[in-house]
Amino acid sequence: MKESMNQDGRAAGWRFDNSYKKLPQIFYSITDPTPVKNPQMVIFNSAFAKELGLESEVLQSQEGIAVLAGNRLAEGAQPIAQAYAGHQFGHFTMLGDGRAVLLGEHVTMAGHRLDIQLKGSGRTQYSRGGDGRAALGPMLREYIISEAMHGLGIPTTRSLAVVSAGEPVYREAPLPGAVLTRVAESHIRVGTFQFAARWTSADELKALADYTWERHFKNAEAEDNRYLSLLREVVSRQAELIAKWQLVGFIHGVMNTDNMAVSGETIDYGPCAFMDAYDPATVFSSIDVQGRYAYGNQPAIAQWNLTRFAETLLSLIRSDQKIAKQQAMEVLESFGPKFHAAWLKGMRSKLGLTGEEKEDESLIGDLLSMMKEAKADFTNTFRSLSLGNWEDLPMSTAEFEDWKQRWTKRMECNPGSAKEKFDLMRKSNPSVIPRNHRVEEALKAASEEGDLKILLNLLDVLKDPFAYSSEQEEYTDVPDPSGCKYQTFCGT
After folding, report:
1. With b meaning 16 or more CB within 10 Å and e meaning fewer, what string describes 61-98?
2. Catalytic position from the list 97, 115, 258, 268
3. Considering the entire predicted model, what is its pTM?
4. Less CB within 10 Å around the terminal CB: N or C of the chain?
5. What is the pLDDT of residues 110-158, one digit of tens each?
6. Do residues 275 and 251 touch, judged by C-beta distance below 8 A?
7. In this predicted model, what pLDDT tens digit does every residue of 395-437 receive, in sequence order?
8. Which residues lie closer than 8 Å to 195 by C-beta, 6 or more apart?
9. Measured between alpha carbons, how far is 254 from 247 in angstroms, rounded to an integer?
């Protein structure tokens, strides 16, 4: 067992509990992080640390860095690797934390319970031949994207720190190693339930379901059947989450069932990216050769994943499986209407529309069709509409002029001043997103040259993407056409 931190280390403010370990041990393996050679702080999220009630100065000391690298354990931490399974591109397999260790759950002074996980912290029993390590570039990428998603108001895991390992990891070539400290409502996945349904007993599956309800949904309105209520709550949260993704052009890239958190957070930032030119068929991931996880497919894939989740609960919902399937199907069928309602509400706000008019859907659909035809940038189109900059839009056609007149007439149906309507649009349409070419520029400078200036500047403008500040102007530029064949990889 690793040496625990001394009194100075406890001053960091960690308040660890380990409720997940009260589940049957089949759900995890006790696993210490593997020490790294020479840990050094690369980037630290001081503002987030303050939210968590942690002491930034102590966490950035050598002893604090040792904890964030996995070289020492904070008092109360009881590290484990979690077991789970999943459908990866439709194929079911046993998985688990192959290069991540859950230190425990930090409980804030307000009673908020959050997982603290080290990613890239060495081999576990679930590593399946991998080295359990992570490269600096992908860990910084997750830091950038997860914090950008938080700024956009989208439920997400958060990044507290990235620590360099002082030793290389070996992929196609040697790369600098690193450890990411990830914070989440929990790391319970659809794949966790799939693991339970396949490889544990009925009592162990029930224990997981009861634990999940108490941790995430105990304040929700419960039906007589807790497990049907659990399904309903997870479906609702995912409908809201995927709608938020679609509204900002976010593409997760690898929506396997092990990458869907039942808490409703965005988790596992692998080959993710933000869409530039609007096209529902957009795919960035190098491994998604069939386009399974394309932008336009994300709602349907979410429902497919939720169906796999429902299958794991059937034995808990009813002993009569025919009735259980019927009840589960009724809940699953609510995903589509819930997603569409959340998406439509968001699109109305993006166009400054309040209330509901029957022509709204055709107004939205016609705009998106013109955007696709013109290869218009998704974010900048809505940004230009929010600013009234018609000259910046690439849809200078008679069809667009007709649309603009229809939109203006619909806007007049709204109560309030023109300023209030455009204020609504600016609150709903980000001025900036983590543009793919900007992210790559920042990662190259940081991981290859040790220069964090570009990365820090990018993070600064992404803190409030709805600010429409002068500092954000240069970050609205689209990539050079030669760089449009952007591709992402599963390095995280």
Report:
1. bebbbbbbbbbbbbebbbbbbbbbbbbbeeeeeebbbb
2. 258
3. 0.95
4. N
5. 999 999 999 999 999 999 988 999 999 999 999 999 999 999 999 999 9
6. yes
7. 888 999 999 999 999 999 888 888 999 999 999 999 999 999 9
8. 27, 83, 84, 85, 94, 95, 96
9. 18
